[in-house]
Amino acid sequence: MINLLPPDVKENIAYARRNTKLMRWSIALGLGIVGTVVVVAFGVLYMQQTTNDFSSQVAKTQEELNAQKLPEIQKRVEDISGSLKLVVQVLSREILFSTLIRQIGSAIPAKASLTGLSISKVTGGIDLTAIASDYDTATQVQVNLKDPANKIFDKADIVNVTCTGAAASDPAYPCTVTIRAQFASNNPFLFIKTTGPANTGTKL
């Protein structure tokens, strides 16, 4: 088929076709840009919302932990743990309390009486409490306990001495003395010694 259209018309038709294609590509490109912007905006909003949600959850969890008083619970757990360690240490040392108390009692001077004994540390020491008829007798308790001849303690230091006089629960023993003592390394009342060879000690 022979195209008899004038050259000017042919050229106009060709340009029209090109313009139509360019318009279509421009519209497609524009739609692509708009879609990309929408996706990016949605992603930013989603990330912001997720961040806010996590922040809220963290704050809520912190409030719940504070409400449960976790610091107090942790302190109680540490106290219990310390007590268990003390028990383990005491049991591992196998203190022969019945024999030990008899030996301490024999070292207490006349006009004084042992009223309390407690493990204060896990390093081989105990606290002792005694009542006495006067101040001199109270201090004599400390002197007798640290006497090497008794083979009980290497050290015995007075923590305090109080004399209440007539206000004492037992007027015959108005003075109270507290002594902190350290077990002697050759103490025969421990199965396991702090130093030196093993010794089975005196049996109950």
Largest sheet: 4 strands, antiparallel
For the record, the CATH architecture of the domain at 90-183 stands as 2-Layer Sandwich
CATH class of the domain at 90-183: Alpha Beta
Q: Considering DSSP H and I runs of 4 or more, what fraction of the residues is helical?
A: 40-55%
- Looking at this structure, what is the CATH superfamily of the domain at 90-183? General secretion pathway protein M, EpsM
- Show unreliable segments: 191-204
- Number of E strands: 4
- The assigned structural class equals alpha+beta
Distance between the termini: 131 Å
Give me the side-by-side strand order of the main sheet: 1-2-4-3
CATH topology descriptor of the domain at 90-183: Gyrase A, domain 2
Count the helices. How many?
Answer: 4
What gyration radius follows from the Cα positions, in whole Å? 45 Å
